[in-house]
């Protein structure tokens, strides 16, 4: 456990805490305390019963979350061992590293990547597969694995929960198949997951005989809830949650509906379909959905080294239409061969995670639809030294903000 561990932090009153005791309670709690980082608030809960009650108040948790949303995001990195032998292995812990962004977007507040949390797997779970897919929502990180197990963590409060096992997926080889979102109509954080009840491929025709299901888990609850079945096969296109809905990519291979996405709305708990971008060409395992500045984007590689980023223009009334947002050409035959994931956009640029090893900044402000990328950080170089072993790692990247939101109880 690193220096940010709560167990290693002193609860001796700080000069800040002592000075603030002379301020009116309401002013101190709702204008000062609520703006502090979560790690400090976890300490101050132990200093005063009244402070503890205030920090646990749902109104305080919501206000703290709103301040966090207004701040520049951090980038959260989750290293996992990766090799042909390691992908299906289980590990006993999970590690979170954090990189703070600068006030000027496309810059870093500090060059150093900090170890935020190392957490052991909850005892009720067998372990955490090395192959994962993380999604973030309001300070919570869902860890989808290649088993039927999903974990949810709040790195700021050090809470890590293994959700009850989902419905078994019959496939021998699976991909992470869960994502995290927020249901505003019910004020609930929700994990959605798909699974296959039947999955058989004819070796000659390659036609798939399948039956697919879908379920949701409301954080604070105790069981998964089955929903309507998806209207099409879902494959390993990385999903995204935005504007009240989960978006999943369809399977592709000889699928007559491979030119669509399936969308699951949390408001009515129903599926519908969204057409893919024009001139869409399916490349199994390469496509990526992303929330870039509040817009649903679809990344499609049109050649080995060129990536189109399509943006969905959806006014909620007319049929959604796609427009080409930008074309990214790294001008390097090596970059993007393993993975090419835009993870965040703002201030006229896009942050791109490439090959699970590096983070780049793509400048959209130049006015050209096509441009170059600028390297921000080499994760292998920065984090491998801290890990201190000879394993090969993949670094999963998600935008991140702190919050006090609990996984087990509704405190928001």
Description:
The relative contact order is 0.14. The chain has helices spanning 15-20, 25-32, 38-44, 49-56, 58-70, 379-387; strands at residues 74-81, 90-91, 93-100, 114-120, 128-129, 132-137, 140-145, 150-154, 159-162, 178-183, 188-201, 208-218, 225-226, 240-242, 245-249, 260-265, 270-275, 288-292, 295-301, 307-313, 321-328, 340-346, 349-354, 358-363, 370-371, 373-378, 393-400. The chain contains six helices and 27 strands. The chain is mainly beta. The chain has two domains: 6-56, no CATH class; 69-400, Kelch-type beta propeller (Neuraminidase), CATH 2.120.10. The chain is globular, with a radius of gyration of 22 Å. The strands form seven sheets. Strands 18-19-20-21-25 form a five-stranded mixed β-sheet, with no helix packed on it. Helices cover 12% and strands 40% of the residues. The two termini are 28 Å apart. The longest helix has 13 residues, at 58-70.
Describe the SSE topology.
Layout: H1 15-20, H2 25-32, H3 38-44, H4 49-56, H5 58-70, E1 74-81, E2 90-91, E3 93-100, E4 114-120, E5 128-129, E6 132-137, E7 140-145, E8 150-154, E9 159-162, E10 178-183, E11 188-201, E12 208-218, E13 225-226, E14 240-242, E15 245-249, E16 260-265, E17 270-275, E18 288-292, E19 295-301, E20 307-313, E21 321-328, E22 340-346, E23 349-354, E24 358-363, E25 370-371, E26 373-378, H6 379-387, E27 393-400
Parallel strand pairs: 21-25
Antiparallel strand pairs: 1-3, 1-27, 2-5, 3-4, 6-7, 7-8, 8-9, 10-11, 11-12, 12-13, 14-15, 15-16, 16-17, 18-19, 19-20, 20-21, 22-23, 23-24, 24-26
């Amino acid at each position: 456990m690193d220096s940010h561990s709560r167990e290693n932090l002193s609860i001796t009153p700080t000069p800040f805490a002592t000075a603030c005791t002379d301020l009116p309670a309401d002013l101190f709690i709702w204008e000062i305390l609520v703006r502090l980082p979560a790690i400090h608030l976890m300490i101050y809960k132990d200093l005063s019963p009244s402070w503890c009650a205030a920090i646990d108040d749902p109104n305080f948790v919501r206000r703290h979350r709103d301040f966090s949303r207004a701040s520049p995001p951090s980038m959260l990195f989750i290293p996992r061992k990766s090799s042909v032998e390691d992908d299906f292995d289980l590990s006993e812990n999970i590690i979170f590293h954090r990189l703070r962004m600068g006030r000027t977007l496309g810059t870093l507040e500090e060059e150093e990547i900090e170890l935020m949390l190392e957490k052991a797997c909850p005892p009720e779970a067998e372990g955490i597969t090395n192959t994962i897919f993380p999604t973030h929502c309001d300070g919570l990180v869902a860890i989808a694995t290649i088993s039927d197990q999903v974990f949810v963590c709040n790195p700021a409060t050090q809470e890590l929960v293994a959700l009850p096992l989902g419905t078994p997926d019959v496939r021998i080889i699976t991909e992470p198949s869960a994502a995290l979102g927020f249901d505003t109509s019910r004020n609930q954080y929700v994990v959605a997951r798909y699974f296959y009840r039947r999955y058989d491929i004819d070796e000659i025709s390659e036609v798939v005989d399948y039956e697919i299901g879908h379920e949701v888990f409301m954080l604070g609850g105790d069981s998964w809830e089955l929903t309507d079945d998806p209207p099409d096969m879902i494959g390993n296109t990385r999903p995204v949650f935005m504007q009240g809905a989960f978006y999943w990519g369809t399977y592709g291979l000889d699928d007559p509906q491979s030119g669509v996405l399936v969308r699951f709305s949390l408001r009515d708990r129903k599926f519908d379909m969204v057409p893919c971008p024009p001139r869409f060409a399916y490349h199994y395992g390469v496509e990526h959905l992303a929330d870039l500045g509040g817009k649903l984007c679809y990344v499609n590689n049109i050649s080995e080294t060129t990536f189109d980023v399509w943006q969905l223009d959806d006014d909620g009334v007319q049929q959604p239409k796609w427009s080409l947002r930008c074309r990214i050409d790294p001008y390097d035959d090596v970059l993007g061969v393993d993975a090419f994931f835009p993870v965040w956009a703002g201030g006229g640029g896009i942050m791109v995670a490439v090959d699970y090893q590096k983070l780049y900044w793509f400048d959209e402000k130049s006015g050209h639809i096509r441009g170059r990328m600028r390297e921000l950080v080499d994760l292998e170089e920065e984090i491998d030294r801290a890990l201190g072993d000879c394993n090969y790692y993949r670094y999963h990247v998600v935008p991140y903000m702190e919050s006090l939101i609990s996984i087990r109880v509704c405190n928001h």
